[in-house]
Design goal:
Three copies of one chain form a homotrimer.
Chain A: E1 7-12, E2 22-26, E3 29-35, E4 41-45, E5 59-61, E6 64-66, E7 73-74, E8 80-82, E9 100-103, E10 106-110, E11 138-142, H1 146-153, E12 179-183, E13 186-196, H2 200-206, E14 212-221, E15 225-234, E16 247-260, E17 263-272, H3 279-309, H4 322-344
Antiparallel strand pairs in A: 1-10, 2-3, 3-4, 5-6, 6-7, 7-8, 9-10, 11-17, 12-13, 13-14, 14-15, 15-16, 16-17
Amino acid sequence: MFIKNTWYVAAWAHEITEAAPFSRTLLGKPVVMWRNADGSITALPDRCPHRGAPLSQGRIEQGQLRCMYHGMLFNSDGACTHIPGQSRMPPGADLQRFPVVERNKWVWIWMGDPELADPSLIPDTFWLDSPDWRYRPDYMHYQVNYLLISDNLLDFSHLAFVHEKTLGGSAAYAEVRSEIDKLPNGLHIERWHMDSTPAPFVTNLVGWTHNVDRWNIYDFVMPGILLMDSGSARAGTGARQGNRSEAVEFRSAQALTPETEHSSHYFFSQAHNFSLDDASVTDNLHAGLLAGFKEDWEMLHAQARVLDLDPDFKMMPLGVDTALGYFRALVNKNLAAERKLSAAA
Amino acid sequence: MFIKNTWYVAAWAHEITEAAPFSRTLLGKPVVMWRNADGSITALPDRCPHRGAPLSQGRIEQGQLRCMYHGMLFNSDGACTHIPGQSRMPPGADLQRFPVVERNKWVWIWMGDPELADPSLIPDTFWLDSPDWRYRPDYMHYQVNYLLISDNLLDFSHLAFVHEKTLGGSAAYAEVRSEIDKLPNGLHIERWHMDSTPAPFVTNLVGWTHNVDRWNIYDFVMPGILLMDSGSARAGTGARQGNRSEAVEFRSAQALTPETEHSSHYFFSQAHNFSLDDASVTDNLHAGLLAGFKEDWEMLHAQARVLDLDPDFKMMPLGVDTALGYFRALVNKNLAAERKLSAAA
Amino acid sequence: MFIKNTWYVAAWAHEITEAAPFSRTLLGKPVVMWRNADGSITALPDRCPHRGAPLSQGRIEQGQLRCMYHGMLFNSDGACTHIPGQSRMPPGADLQRFPVVERNKWVWIWMGDPELADPSLIPDTFWLDSPDWRYRPDYMHYQVNYLLISDNLLDFSHLAFVHEKTLGGSAAYAEVRSEIDKLPNGLHIERWHMDSTPAPFVTNLVGWTHNVDRWNIYDFVMPGILLMDSGSARAGTGARQGNRSEAVEFRSAQALTPETEHSSHYFFSQAHNFSLDDASVTDNLHAGLLAGFKEDWEMLHAQARVLDLDPDFKMMPLGVDTALGYFRALVNKNLAAERKLSAAA
C-alpha cells in the first residue's frame, strides 16, 4: 500500500532523453519515460495494453514510442496511433499519461488521480538548479521498504553510530535533542550540536580540527522528501544566532520513492556554496556523503533481514523516535484517507 | 495445470544414452531417462519411492538403474529388483514407466493415462531424420510459462519488430494478413509476404538483396509443436503457385514442453534442403535462427517480469491474436475435459 | 516447528571471542554471542528491541554490546544500560539472555524455557577436549531442513552408495543389519561389517588393503547429535569381542542445529587416538571425512529439490528406516508435548 495522491521523484532530469525510453518501476507499477522535442517529458505505463510487453524495450520514432513486440505505436499523450495489420483502434488501446513536472533537475510524477495533480504542491529544491550551489546528483537502489529509510532519515542520532567515521563523529551528537515541529505534510526538525568535534567529512573537506557549532535543519515531507540546511561553524562564532561568516554550509535534497513493497529508489545530493570553481570540493563532499550512505545501506538491509525472520516483532519506541513515529502516523492517515476515497468512488 | 494426455517432446534423441541417466523435469514432475541395450528408452519418475532422492544421481548397472542414496535397483520397466538389506519387495516399490516413442530424433513422452498413449498421434517431423535435409538440433530453457512462448509462435507479425535485424526485416511484414484454419488439435497458418525485401538471415545465408516472395506455412498443434515450411523465392517467380525452382526452402520443427508453471523447455531446429554438403550453410542458418531466438528470449522474459507485477492485468486482443486466442481456448478446453475425466474417475 | 527445550550446539568454542560479536540464526531466531572477560559466553537475541537492527553489527565496549544503529548498550546479562538521548529505561529495553554452556569445545544453547535448562542433559563428548584424541573441527551450512540430515545419519546403509569411494566401500556394507536400541532421548545403533574390504578412507589413512572387521557404534540423540565410536581391525582379530590392539579407532561428534525450516547448521569432527604427533594423519582423516560429507551435501540438496516439487509425496519406509522412523516419531512426540505445554501456559 502506497500513498498515490502525492508527487514522487521519478528520476534525475538527465536520465530522461529523446533518444531512448527509460524504465523505472514506481509504486509497484512499471513506468516508461522519454523526452519530447519540446523538452517536456512523457510518462506512461511501461506495459503494452496488448500483451503486457514492456514499452521500454521499444524505440522512439519521431517522438512516438513503438512497442517492439508487435508494433503498437503511442504518441506523447499515450494515444495509440498505429496497430500493424489493422486500421480500427479498439477501445483500451490508449494509455493514460501520468502527470509529470520537471523542476530543479528532478522529474516529479503523480501516480494518483490526475485531477489532483497540483504542481504547487511540489517542494522547493531551488539549490538543485542554482549557480550559487554545486553538487553531484546520485541514486541508490534499496531492497527494503521505503519506510525503513524514512525512519533512518527522521532520526539523526544514528549519525553518531552508523556514521561514526564519516558523517557523524562524536557519540555526544546522539545525546542532543532535536526540536521538532509538525507541518501539515511532514515535519520540521532542528538539531544543533554546540562546541563539538567536527564531523569526519568536514575535516576531510576543509581541514578543520577545531571545535564547531554544527546544525542539521530540515523539512521531511510527504511522501519521503528531505530538504536540509546543514553546516558547521567555528564554535562560538554565533552561527545559531545567524552569523554564518565562519561556516561551511550545505544544502541536501533527498527523495524516497517506493519501487515495490520490498524495494525503494533513493535520489540524493548534497550541495556546497563555497569553492564553487573547485570541482575537487564537489567530488570530495560527494564521496563523503556516499561513504555514509553505503553505511546506511548496509545497516538497513541487515535490519530488514532480521525483521523478515519474524513478522510479529513490534518495534519499541524511544525518545529519539518522536519524529519518525509522527511521520509513520501521517503516512497511515493518508493511506486511510485514500482508501476511504476509493471506497466511495 | 498442464494437459496430460498428449505427447510432449522430452529430449533430443542424442541426449539419452546407455552410459548415464538423464534428468529433465516435465509438467512439474522430474523424469529420468536412459537408453536400453536394445535401443529403446526407459522413462521413469526421477524420484526414488523410498525417500525421494533423484534416481538420476544414480548409475546404470547392466541396464538397470541404481538409486545411489540407499541402493534400490529398478529395471527398464520400472520394477524394483533389489533393496539392500531386505528380501521382501514392499508394495509401492515399483515405478510406473512413462510411454516413450523415439521418432525422427525427438523423444516423445506421454505423461497422462498410459492407456491413451497412441503413437499415431505424434506429429510428423520426417525432415529431422531425412538425407534430404540438414540442420543443427538445439534447445533453450525459458523461465516463463510455455503459453507465453506459444503466443509468440502463433503470431509472426512480431518478426517485423523483435527480429527486425535477424529473422524479420521490413515493417511491412507485420501488415500482412495470415490465413488461419482450425485443425482438430491446433491451427494451420499461411502467411505470404509478396515482393518484399528478404529477411536479414536470408541475405546472410545466400547473399540475396533482390526482392522476394516469402512464406511461412505451418501447423501449430497440441501441446505446443510448430511444424513449418518456410522460404523465399525471387519475387514474381511463382512460388505461391508452386514453383520453387528459384527458392530457398526451410523446414522448422519446434516443440514446447512445460517444465513448471514458470519455466519451459524449447526444442528447435531449422533445416535446409540445398547445399547439403556445405556444413557452413547449416551453421550459418542455425546461427541466424539462434540470434532471433535470443531476441524472443529477452522479450518474453521482459514481458513475464511486467506480468508478474500485476496478476490482474488483462491482455487486449488485437486482430493479430486470432490464432493465439484460438489456441489458448483449445488449451483451456482440453484442460477442462481432463479435469472432468479425473473428477469422474 | 522446532523442539525448544533441549540443548543445541550453537558454535565451536573458538568462534566466540571477546573482540567482536558473532551472529548465527538458530531455530529461526537470530542470536548474537560474545565472550566475556571471565571466559563465559553471553548469547542474546541478535535484534535490538528498538527497531530490530542486528546487534551483531555493533561493537563490544568493555564487555558490553553497543547497537550501532542508535546506540543502545546491553551488558552481559542482556540488561540495557544506556540509551542515547534519554535517561529513563523503558520497559522492554532488556534482552533475555539464553542459557549457554561451553563444554568440550562446543557451545551449547538452550532456546526454550530457561528454568528447564539443566546442563546435565548435555551429551558427553569428552574426546573433543582430550589429550588422547586429535581432530579438526569443522562446519557446513545446508539449505535443507535438518531432518533430512538426521535421516541420513540414522541409516548408514547409504555409505555403500553415496560414499562408495570415500567413507563406504563395498556394496555388501548395505546388506548388514544394524542392532538398534531405543534410548529415552534417541537411539543406540551398532553396525558390524565382518571380514569386509576396508573403507577407502581407511586405506588412504593407514594403507590397509587386507580385510577388516569394521564397526560403527553410535548414539543419536535429541535434537540431532551423533556420538560415535567407529573403526576397523584386521579381520578375525577379535575386535567385536573387545580386542582393539590391531585396530584403528575413531570418535566422531556431529551436531545438527536448525537455522530455519529450510536451512541447517552442521558441526562435525572425527578424532583419532593414534599417531597423535603426526598432524598429517589428522589432516588426512579430516580430508576423507570432508570428501564424504560433500557427497551427502550434494545428495541431500538434490533430494530436497525433488521433494520441493511435490509436497504431497509420501516416503516409503524400508527395513533400513527403523532408526530414522523412530527418531522422527520421537521428534513429533516432543513437538506435541511442547505445544501442549505452551497451550496450557
